[in-house]
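Kindly go through the entry underneath: sequence plus fold tokens. Please state briefly how this chain folds according to its tokens.
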Amino acid sequence: MRKTTLARRIAEEQSSHFFDLESPRDLLRLTNPELALEKLQGLVVIDEIQTMPELFPVLRVLADRPAKPAVFLVLGSASPELVAHSAESLAGRVEFVDLHGFDLRETGPGTWATLWERGGFPRSFLASDAEASVAWREGFIRTFLERDLPQLGIRIPAPAMRRFWTMLAHGHGQHWNASELGRSMALNDKAIRSYLDILTQTYMIRQLQPWFENLGKRQVKSPKIYLRDSGILHSLLGIETLVGLESHPKIGASWEGFALEQVLRLSGSKDAYFWATQSGAELDLLIFKNGRRIGYEFKYSENPSITKSMRIAMRDLKLHELKIVCPGKDRVGLAADIEVVGIDHLAKAL
């Protein structure tokens, strides 16, 4: 995976020690973890920490040593909240860095169609052909469900979680409706919510929260649900090629999720929402940057135009600017503070 490759390159540039917790040899080395780690100096990399959360208290003890002879780089495949006791054990001693798949700045101009089709996982994007990419993603989905989740202590049967994940794929970009999904799977709202939280905390799902403005209008309160990787979305929907995607009814929703993820990754924004009213006005994405309100609409169209909903969003949310992100290379102003941005220009437009 990408995090492991980056960690190994960092480790190669300095005095370091590397532990892969999926390696029987390294697990044997950590039979007595405090004894094994306390004598090491320099950079100590521990990969797949989620498989051995009992290491966190040991790392706390080692991090509190006055001389600090070692620095620990810890890699995992789940959010800190899902790795038992990590935040509590290392509070005040750790910095968290979320690592995502490839984005447009890394893959370069003219690659957006492949990145959209295959997603940002390196082995999927860099596969020799579409068939190899599809095979890798299917293998990833199966491994994630049958091995990774059980390693995190999650005991939901793989077929049930895959069915739920696939249902979310068909509702990609729509508002969360626990009751509807619960009826389909014969589960209560609490169980369905736990399924969603698991996929969110393992970075498979994004829950985009609604923004509320004091407008005297009824506004949508449920989050919107997106699969964070477009390639995984396409695999769960049975879409194997860009040609197949172009004839699929979810193409617009797929584009919305892909472009939304690119905006969030390239902008680095953590303060992001959508906005919608019960009367039908909506905005796909609202971010706050340096005190400015910036709106985004995502349209899979070569010639998008300004809609009534966009004008309402500009007025009611007091947007400083609105960008309509579409395929292509052009960047064209449509009105004051409203412009069309081709996906190839996105990095420069943020």
User: Anything to note?
Assistant: The mean pLDDT is 91.
